[in-house]
TrEMBL record:
Residues 11-45 form a coiled coil. Keywords: Coiled coil. Pfam families: SPAM (PF02090). This is Uncharacterized protein. It comes from the Bacteria. InterPro entries: Salm_SPAgM. It comes from Paludibacterium paludis.
């Protein structure tokens, strides 16, 4: 009978760890979606800055020295913005990779505890079936004994 209580505790432990793993997977998925949306936003910003850079090139225009310096300063500012955006994109990609690895770890933990839970449930079902069969055999033996004594 002690083993039944242990099995119940093990089933509760497996269930708790399964729920924790599912919650962690959901949290990581939400975080991954947030990072993906942020990266898409940054990619739109990169496209906008690139469009500004292309629009900045003056075709067939005669510029004086001050105009050239002003155009180059503006171009340098845009390139610095692009550099910052590329750095942020790389950072987000690294963060997404870290989240993907964490999610894989959580999914492996979920599979482990699900297998344990299935194992515990099968064990409990087997023990119940054995107990039921013993009870049925005892009842059958008692019934046969009564029939023999009643004759």
């Amino acid at each position: 009978m002690e083993s039944w209580r242990k099995a119940g505790g093990l089933l509760r432990l497996a269930d708790l760890n399964i729920r924790r793993s599912q919650g962690e997977i959901a949290r990581l998925e939400a975080e991954r979606l947030r990072l993906t949306a942020r990266r898409a936003d940054i990619e739109r910003q990169i496209a906008s800055v690139n469009a500004l850079l292309l629009a900045e090139y003056r075709h067939n225009q005669v510029l004086d020295r001050a105009g050239i310096y002003e155009a180059r300063r503006h171009e340098a500012v845009l390139r610095a913005q692009l550099s910052g955006l590329f750095f942020e994109t790389d950072t987000l990609l690294g963060e997404e990779a870290r989240l993907a690895m964490e999610q894989q770890t959580c999914q492996a933990r979920l599979r482990y505890w699900s297998a344990k839970q299935n194992k515990f449930q099968r064990w409990v079902a087997d023990k119940r079936r054995e107990a039921r069969m013993k009870r049925d055999l005892a009842d059958e033996a008692e019934t046969q004994e009564r029939t023999v004594w009643n004759r």
